Amino acid sequence: MELDTDPTKLKAKPIIKPKVEPCDDDDELPPPPPPPASGSGEDWEATTPLAAGNPFFTALIAKSHLHPKFQMWIPPRFQHRLAEPEARTAAVLHSGGKSWATSYCGHLKMKKLDAGWSEFAVDNRLLVGDACVFELVAMGAAGGLEFQVQILRGGLPAEVVTSKGLTSDQPILIVD
């Protein structure tokens, strides 16, 4: 069978023009969380105690956390623990004896730490593959938040991934 390649006999295909619109900050979604371990039906990350027993979440650092926007998305499973401000709220990150002022964007559909996160990431030389544990240590009446941040170079240790600290007999202890 021979194909007819005469240009006069080919049907013209309509040109599809893409619709280009400006992006809203809320449109960019964070990378999906890792799948839960089989048999774990509860939200171990938000309920497992650290040494102080405060709620926490973990983040495996990806390119989207570092470049170009420097944004740290708050996992949806942790957002219910935070006040629901209608606008930006002050947040402070503590790590290694230093503090960084950031802003918590609670008014967006996907909550995040925005302004100031870049200074924290640069000052602490965060790299793709590092992990951070954000422990909520204080929540002010006006909505201000304070997190103690533990930085784990090269990702989460195997003990955290396997045991997950499902019980208070096996808590996750991170020594600064």
TrEMBL record:
Record bears the keyword Glycoprotein: no
Chief location: nucleus
Segments of this protein annotated with the region Disordered: 1-46
GO function terms (MF aspect): DNA binding
Location of this chain's protein in the cell: Nucleus
GO cellular component: nucleus
Protein name: TF-B3 domain-containing protein
InterPro entries documented for this protein: B3_DNA-bd (IPR003340), DNA-bd_pseudobarrel_sf (IPR015300), REM16-like (IPR044837)
Top-level taxon: Eukaryota
Signal peptide bounds: none
Keywords carried by this UniProt record: DNA-binding, Nucleus, Transcription, Transcription regulation
Residue span, TF-B3 domain: 57-155
